[in-house]
Amino acid sequence: MNSGSVPLNRVHLTGDELRHIGEAIASGALSGPGAQSAYCEAVIRRAVGAPWAAIVPSCTAALEMSAVLLDLAPGDEVVMPSFTFVSTAAAVVLRGAVPIFVDVDPVTLNICPEAAAAAVTARTRAIFAVHYAGVVADMDALARLARARGLALVEDAAQAYGSTRGGRPAGSFGTTACFSFHGTKNVTSGEGGALVVNDPALVERAGILRDRGTDRERFLRGQVNAYSWQDLGSSQIVSEITAAFLRAQLDHADAIRADRLSIWQGYAAALTEPARQGHFRIPAPPPETEHNGHIFFLMLPDARSRLSLGEHLARRGIVAAPQYVPLHSSPAGRRFGRPSGPMTVTDHAADCLLRLPLWVGLGGDQNRVIDGVLDWCAGRREAA
Ligand SMILES: Cc1ncc(COP(=O)(O)O)c(C=O)c1O
What is its EC number (predicted)? Predict the structure, then answer.
C-alpha cells in the first residue's frame, strides 16, 4: 500500500485459512471441540509448555473462566494494573470480586510489583498481571509475592502470544493464562482466545467449565458411559470453522512474530534520535524479555503534544491511537473497584501514549509514518 490511509492494525492472512476451513467443512463436523480445535490446542500447549489449553471465544471468556476456577467470591480482592483493557477487571467483577487497581512500571507499563505488594490485604485472593504490548510483566517478582501471600497469579496474556521472559514463554507463569486472538492481535481468528491452565489440580474442572458444566470431555475419552451436569459451566467452545482459521494463523506464528519485530525495530532505529532529543520516549523492553512486536508506541511529554502529533499524522492519512482509559477513573472501575496508591504512570500513559501502525505487510508505508513523525519533530524544533 503506497497511497491512501494507513490503518493502525490490519489482519494478516497466511494463505492457509481457506484450505483448513474447507477441511473442516468437508469433515461435516462443525461443532467444537473437534479435530481443528484439537490441533490448535496442541500447538498452544507445546508453545507454552502447559499441561492443558483450550481455545475459547475470546480472552475475555478465558479471564472469566479463570475467575471461576479460582473460586473468586463476593468481597474477594484481586490486584491488577489500572492500565489495562476492561476485560481484566470485568471478569472478576462478574464473580462479585473487587478489582484493586495499582500503578504500572514507567518503562514496561506492566503492573508494578511494589505497588501490587502494597495493595495486598487479608481479602486479596489473586494478582492478575497483564503483559502490555507483548512485553512479559515481572513474573519472578509477582510469583514471589503470590507465593509469600498465598495468592493465585493469572496472566492476562491477551497481547503476548509468542513472547518470552528469561526464556520462558508468556502463559507459562500463571496459575492460568489467557490469550486473545481478536482481529487486532498478532495471531487471530477474528474473535477468539485461549485459556491455559498450568495448575494440574484445576485441569479437570477447566474442561467441565468450558463444556456447559458437564463431563463431556471424560465421555469423549471413553471414561464414562454418559455425560451429565457436574459443576458451574458455560459454552466456551469454538466452532471448527473458527478453529480452522486459527490453525492457519498459529502455524505461521513465528513468521508473523519475526515480521512484526522487524517493523518494530525499524521504528526503534528511526526514532531513537528524536527520542534522544526529548520529543518523546520510545519503548525500552527489559533485556530479559523477548517480545512479539505487538505494539510500538511513543510516549509524548504531555497531552497537547500527543494531540498535535496525532493530528499531524491524521492529516497524512495515518492512524495513530492512544491506548486505555485507566480503569480506576472509568465509571465502572469507580463503581466496582478501588485504586491503591498513586496512579502517576497510568494517568501519564493515558494522556501521552500514542501507538503507531504496526501490521504484517505495512511495507513502504512505514516510511510514511516515520517521515510524518520526523516532520512533526522538525516543526516543533522550528517553533521552539
Ligand atoms: C490486556 C487485554 N486483556 C483482554 C483483552 C480482551 O481480549 P478479547 O477481545 O479477546 O476478549 C484485550 C483485548 O484487547 C487486552 O488487550
Answer: 2.6.1.59
Pocket of ligand 1 (CB under 6 A): 58-60, 84-85, 87-88, 130, 156, 158-159, 180, 182, 193
- In 3D space, the residue among 29, 27, 11, 8 whose CA is nearest the CA of residue 19 turns out to be 27
> Which ligand 1 atom minimizes the distance to the CA of 58?
10
CA of 333 from ligand 1 middle (Å) equals 16
- Residue 196 placed within a domain: yes
Domain match, 211 and 71 both: yes
Q: What percent of the chain has pLDDT over 90?
A: 97
Name the pairing type of β-strands 52-56 and 289-290.
unpaired
240 and 313 co-located in one domain: no
Same domain, 150 and 263: no
pLDDT score at 384: 76
Q: Are residues 272 and 311 in the same domain?
A: yes
| Cα 117 to middle of ligand 1, angstroms | 25
Give the pLDDT confidence score for residue 2 in this predicted structure.
Answer: 44
What phi and psi values does residue 200 have, to the nearest 5 degrees?
-55, -25
Best residue among 87, 88, 297 to mutate for probing ligand 1, ranked by most atoms within 8 Å of CB: 87
Indicate the pairing of strand 164-165 with strand 168-169.
Answer: antiparallel
| pLDDT beneath 70, residues of the chain | 1-3
Residue 111: CA count within 13 A, CB half-sphere: 37
Q: Tell whether 211 and 266 lie within a shared domain.
A: no
pLDDT on residue 3: 60
Q: CATH no. for residue 297?
A: 3.90.1150.10
The residue range of the domain holding 314 is 253-383
